[in-house]
Design goal:
It is a single chain. The chain is α/β, with parallel strands linked by helices and about 270 residues long. The chain has 2 domains: about 1-145, serine acetyltransferase, domain 1 (Orthogonal Bundle); about 165-270, UDP N-Acetylglucosamine Acyltransferase, domain 1 (3 Solenoid), CATH 2.160.10.10. It contains 10 helices and 15 strands. It has helices spanning about 10-25, 30-40, 45-55, 65-75, 80-95, 100-105, 110-125, 130-145, 255-260, 265; strands spanning about 145, 150-155, 155-160, 165, 170-175, 175-180, 185, 200, 205, 210, 215, 220-225, 230, 240, 245-250. Strands 3-6-9-12-14-15 form a 6-stranded mixed sheet. The chain has a 5-stranded parallel sheet with strand order 1-4-7-10-13. A hairpin with a 4-residue loop joins strand 14 and strand 15.
Length: about 270
């Protein structure tokens, strides 16, 4: 779970508005933008739907139509909003360059891509598959992240930098996982059925890693940058290489939170 306490939507919104007001006062060039994105809204859901709908819309699909989809999803499945709050907390807890919830909400495309996927996933399970695929396509164009609408992604997930992340249809990413840029969670061919990775809690996947096939990355494990993983990875180990092999153990139970990239530190812990 996140290191900081879980906030209700109302508590989180109060903190977020305070941050927005402080930043708007400090940086006049951003004041109107921050008012439009945050301060002018009455709750977190309204602010989030405004930001995401403007990112997702295009000349054919106007922002107001997209926003109606987000508002429906948030009303009928409030767990989506709760997950967004936990996702923001996860980024602030794990990224030393971030100190404000506001920064994640208005600037971080990895966060945006994940929240847009939550809408696509909601529509997918309502049987509106064509619409969900449209959302996936627009998300890929807007954020550089391609997540199939059927992929199952938990809360407390950080897509760090995010560019080039690809997540396939039958992928499962559990709660509290960190994934860096250019990661692929993909298949190994044109096979049908359950064919994508299962990423368990606490995992950190380094930049450029490729995890292919219906395999499992065990809870609390770490995948080193640039690795190609083709077989199951046990719990609480570090794997690296092409093909990936076990080189040691992480020095903590939740690599997703420590975000330590140097696998040589783990090798010394063998």
């Amino acid at each position: 779970m996140p290191n900081k306490p879980f906030y209700s939507s109302e508590q989180f919104w109060k903190i977020l508005k305070q941050e927005a007001e402080q930043v708007a006062a400090k940086e006049p060039m951003l004041a109107s933008y921050i008012h439009a994105c945050v301060i002018n809204h009455h709750n977190f859901e309204s602010s989030l739907s405004f930001i995401l709908s403007n990112k997702l819309s295009d000349d054919v699909m106007p922002a107001i139509a997209v926003r109606e989809m987000f508002e429906e999803a948030y009303m009928l499945n409030p767990g989506i909003v709760d997950s967004a709050i936990v996702d923001i907390q996860a980024v602030v807890n794990r990224d030393p360059a971030v100190s404000l919830f506001l920064t994640v909400l208005i600037h971080f495309k990895g966060f945006h891509a994940l929240q847009i996927h939550r809408l696509a996933n909601y529509m997918w399970h309502k049987g509106r598959t064509d619409l969900s695929l449209f959302i996936q396509s627009r998300n890929s164009i807007a954020s550089g992240v391609d997540i199939h609408p059927a992929a199952k992604i938990g809360k407390g997930v950080m897509l760090d930098h995010a560019t080039g992340i690809v997540i396939g249809e039958t992928t499962v990413v559990e709660d509290n996982v960190s994934i860096l840029q250019n990661v692929t969670l993909g298949g190994t061919g044109n096979e049908q059925g359950d064919r994508h990775p299962k990423i368990r809690q606490g995992v950190m996947i380094g930049s450029g890693a490729k995890i292919l096939g219906n395999i499992e990355i065990g809870e609390g494990s770490k995948v080193g940058a640039g690795s190609v993983v083709l077989i199951d990875v046990p719990c609480c180990v570090t794997v690296v290489g092409v093909p990936a092999k076990i080189v040691g153990k992480p020095d903590c139970s939740m690599p997703c939170e420590s975000m330590k990239q140097n696998v040589l530190d783990d090798e010394a812990a063998r």
